[in-house]
Q: What sequence folds into this?
């Protein structure tokens, strides 16, 4: 049994072949949903069994391709399983909400390529794989009646520039893993790496492609891409830190990430509050979420990788909730404003609550999955820097005001009355499950977060 082949190569092959039966929509989506579910569950089971004494399973952790190796070991499997379970929920939602025939297969391909980017050696090739994944996924984003291409062009240009800068930084410090680094080289490579990561994640001041792209593409696949892309970027950054001692010990690196993340939270909150366009509003909410992930990396010297692990699941839940709910409430029409959501709670109460719960998770409000992560972050920053604390709290206040503004529109009185359906449609089941998971993690965060902290700590032991 070859672990990289099973969790990376095989899903890519099967999902590519499944495109041949895409016109048989039910069979096509069912096959891919079952595939991602089995990949996710089997990863958890094998990881759990491997931790037991006396476990013996003949398996290879390396797969060689084009002179490079993909390495997946038992410590990686829980994270791999979590990513595939996320993909499973996205594919299940396509049964009801997003009819594009190519999305389910490219969802699996994009997921497998993102996992490959985390596991490839030499790890500098991670950024090339991520760029390939984004380029392949762009046609799915472009489905629908969207004529403008400025956002898509800016997205591709920024991604290509980030690849160049990150690879250049790695080339300058090719021997940095084992040899002392010259101060000038250290400074130049840090600047190049920082600019490359900022371009990649849409960090300030390179964030403009996120709201611009959101206006030009279907929001549902956009939400999927903006779920996995920042998470993969953060994990790639952790891999840099794990492999390069000079980067871990560079005094300006972690404070820079803290300030950058705080600025993005503030920018995202203010930007979301003052938007009339709903897709731009949610794009700025995503920017704030990426800021929280960056802040969590910046506080690694204080809390190790625990804060990173604390934000991964709330971020993923929030983006799935917002994407699915908005696709149902706002539809696929171009130029939707917040006024179009007026009174939607009376028409579609469950989707309305799903949307609000996703926003509450990013904001870090009580009883939702982001609450414990937010308290953890605020407690950490309160002991280190008041300016960053003020910026984060200010950004979260604006996010809260955005939630209130949206709730007022959603609950605005119309002639319609609140309708309770006579029967439960099957599409409500994943929505209810995600809402319950969101609230469960808000009330009992230790049930899952503690295990995730351990998993990430084992994957990146040197941080």
A:
């Amino acid at each position: 049994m070859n672990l990289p082949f099973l969790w990376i190569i095989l899903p890519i092959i099967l999902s590519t072949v499944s495109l041949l039966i895409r016109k048989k929509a039910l069979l096509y989506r069912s096959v891919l949903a079952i595939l991602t579910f089995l990949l996710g569950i089997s990863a958890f089971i094998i990881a759990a069994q491997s931790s037991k004494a006396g476990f013996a399973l003949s398996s290879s952790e390396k797969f060689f391709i084009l002179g490079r190796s993909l390495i997946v070991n038992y410590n990686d499997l829980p994270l791999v399983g979590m990513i595939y379970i996320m993909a499973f929920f996205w594919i299940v939602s396509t049964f009801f909400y997003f009819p594009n025939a190519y999305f389910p297969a490219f969802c699996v391909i994009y997921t497998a390529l993102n996992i490959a980017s985390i596991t490839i050696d030499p790890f500098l090739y991670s950024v090339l794989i991520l760029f390939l994944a984004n380029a392949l996924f762009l046609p799915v984003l472009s489905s629908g009646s969207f004529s403008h291409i400025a956002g898509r062009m800016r997205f591709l240009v920024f991604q290509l520039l980030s690849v160049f800068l990150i690879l250049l930084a790695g080339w300058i410090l090719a021997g940095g893993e084992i040899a002392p680094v010259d101060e000038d080289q250290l400074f130049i490579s840090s600047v190049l790496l920082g600019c490359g990561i900022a371009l990649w994640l849409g960090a300030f001041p390179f964030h403009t492609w996120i709201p611009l792209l959101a206006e030009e593409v279907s929001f549902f696949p956009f939400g999927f891409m903006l779920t996995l892309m920042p998470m993969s970027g953060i994990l790639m950054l952790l891999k840099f830190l794990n492999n390069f001692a000079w980067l871990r010990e560079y005094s300006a690196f972690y404070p820079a990430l803290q300030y950058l993340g705080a600025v993005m939270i503030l920018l995202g909150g203010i930007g979301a509050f003052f938007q009339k366009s709903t897709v731009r509003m949610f794009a700025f909410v995503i920017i704030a979420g990426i800021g929280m992930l960056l802040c969590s990396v910046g506080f690694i010297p204080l809390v190790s990788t625990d804060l990173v692990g604390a934000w991964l699941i709330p971020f993923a839940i929030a983006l799935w909730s917002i994407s699915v709910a908005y696709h149902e409430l706002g539809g696929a029409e171009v130029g939707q404003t917040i006024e179009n959501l007026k009174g939607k709670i009376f028409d579609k109460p469950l989707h309305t609550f799903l949307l609000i719960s996703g926003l509450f998770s990013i904001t870090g409000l009580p009883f939702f999955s982001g609450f414990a992560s937010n308290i953890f972050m605020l407690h950490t920053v309160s002991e280190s820097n008041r300016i960053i604390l003020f910026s984060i709290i200010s950004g979260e206040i604006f996010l809260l005001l955005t939630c209130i503004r949206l709730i007022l529109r959603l609950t605005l009185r119309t002639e319609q009355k609140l309708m309770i359906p006579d029967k439960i449609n099957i599409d409500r089941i994943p929505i209810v499950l995600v809402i319950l998971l969101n609230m469960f993690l808000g009330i009992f965060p230790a049930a899952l977060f503690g295990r995730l902290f351990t998993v990430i700590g084992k994957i990146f032991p040197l941080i």
In short: The chain has a mean pLDDT of 85. Strands lie at 62-65, 68-71, 120-121. The radius of gyration is 21 Å. Residues 117 and 126 are 4 Å apart (CA to CA).
